[in-house]
């Protein structure tokens, strides 16, 4: 194999098994694992370059990219394919949102096998009813504990690589209260979940109470404009949390910039006033590693990097 391909040209150099091992090691390291959301593989490339420990793929973002609300309209195939595209291009472990498992327990089992095949490091499955909705909206409903336990047991039984992380998400905090969410988390851990994600905890005190009650790795969701106080990664680490996701942050940043830029073009007829707010072509080429592609086969890639 050419050296360029061995070193990660066109795809990650790290195997899926090694990424899963790294994710599990990180969860048990005592250092919080920071997983910003990536809405495409290029964002995942930047997340890796900036030194984060992992990448997250949000179901809400996959829906939003399709101009759909986060109410369970996306399909397993759509989510798996976006996960595959992102996992393929980063050496970091990628955790993906698998909603409710896309159906009954047997569907949850198939979901795990497909995500394994796509190279993901892990997924989370939630206890909402179908169709689900964004975890920071009101009006959610959760299934009985026994139903979610069946989902999780099906998912765990379908796992072929023991390194693949199965995370159980509970939305019970907003519907049944914190104590009920803690009880659910314990039941889900007993069912085989490797990691617990409790959605919409209110503040540091609730995060601390959850950590004190649950003896498995925990994931925090630091999404903007939601029901949770935005805590720093250092604070969450001090509270004993093992991982934190920033699910929609990069999409919100990008869409805000795009909307402002398009509004200016619509108003002025030119983008000339926006140049200092754009990523320069040279930086984009650097992220895309144009020079390495040129070195790989100058007979095909004959462009130059000059302006």
From TrEMBL:
SUPFAM superfamilies recorded: Phosphoenolpyruvate/pyruvate domain
One annotated GO molecular function: metal ion binding
Record bears the keyword Zinc-finger: no
GO terms (BP aspect): propionate catabolic process, 2-methylcitrate cycle
Keyword Metal-binding: yes
Class of enzymatic activity (EC top level): lyase
Enzyme Commission designation: 4.1.3.30
Known catalytic reactions: (2S,3R)-3-hydroxybutane-1,2,3-tricarboxylate = pyruvate + succinate; 3-hydroxybutane-1,2,3-tricarboxylate = pyruvate + succinate
Pathway given in the UniProt record: Organic acid metabolism; propanoate degradation
CC cofactor: Mg(2+)
Sorted UniProt keywords: Lyase, Magnesium, Metal-binding
Domain of life: Bacteria
InterPro entries assigned to the protein according to its UniProt record, in alphabetical order: ICL/PEPM, Isocitrate_lyase_ph_CS, PrpB, Pyrv/PenolPyrv_kinase-like_dom, Pyrv_kinase-like_dom_sf
Function: Catalyzes the thermodynamically favored C-C bond cleavage of (2R,3S)-2-methylisocitrate to yield pyruvate and succinate.
Family: Belongs to the isocitrate lyase/PEP mutase superfamily. Methylisocitrate lyase family.
Protein name: Methylisocitrate lyase
Species: Nocardia amikacinitolerans
Organism phylogeny: Bacteria, Bacillati, Actinomycetota, Actinomycetes, Mycobacteriales
């Amino acid at each position: 194999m050419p050296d360029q391909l061995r070193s990660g040209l066109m795809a990650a150099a790290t195997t899926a098994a090694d990424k899963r091992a790294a994710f599990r090691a990180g969860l048990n390291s005592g250092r919080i694992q920071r997983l910003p959301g990536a809405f495409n593989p290029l964002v995942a490339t930047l997340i890796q370059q900036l030194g984060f420990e992992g990448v997250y793929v949000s179901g809400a973002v996959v829906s939003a990219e399709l101009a759909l609300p986060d109410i369970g309209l996306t399909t397993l195939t759509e989510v798996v394919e976006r996960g595959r595209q992102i996992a393929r291009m980063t050496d970091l472990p990628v955790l993906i949102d698998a909603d409710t498992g896309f159906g009954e327990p047997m569907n949850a089992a198939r979901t795990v096998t497909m995500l394994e095949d796509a190279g993901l490091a892990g997924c989370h499955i939630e206890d909402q009813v179908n169709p689900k909705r964004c975890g920071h909206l009101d009006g959610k409903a959760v299934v009985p504990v026994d139903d979610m336990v069946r989902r999780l047991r099906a998912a765990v039984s379908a796992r072929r690589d023991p390194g693949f992380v199965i995370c159980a998400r509970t939305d019970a905090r907003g519907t049944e209260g914190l104590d009920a969410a803690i009880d659910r988390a314990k039941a889900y851990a007993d069912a085989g979940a490797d990691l617990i994600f409790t959605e919409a905890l209110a503040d540091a005190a609730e995060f601390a109470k959850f950590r004190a009650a649950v003896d498995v790795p925990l994931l925090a969701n630091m999404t903007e404009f939601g029901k949770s106080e935005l805590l720093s990664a250092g604070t969450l680490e001090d509270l004993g949390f093992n991982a934190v996701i920033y699910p929609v942050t990069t999409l919100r940043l990008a869409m805000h910039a795009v909307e402002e830029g398009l509004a200016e073009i619509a108003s002025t007829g030119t983008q000339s006033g926006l140049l200092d707010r754009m990523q320069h072509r040279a930086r984009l080429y650097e992220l895309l590693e144009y020079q390495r592609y040129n070195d790989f086969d100058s007979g095909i890639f004959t462009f130059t990097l000059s302006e």
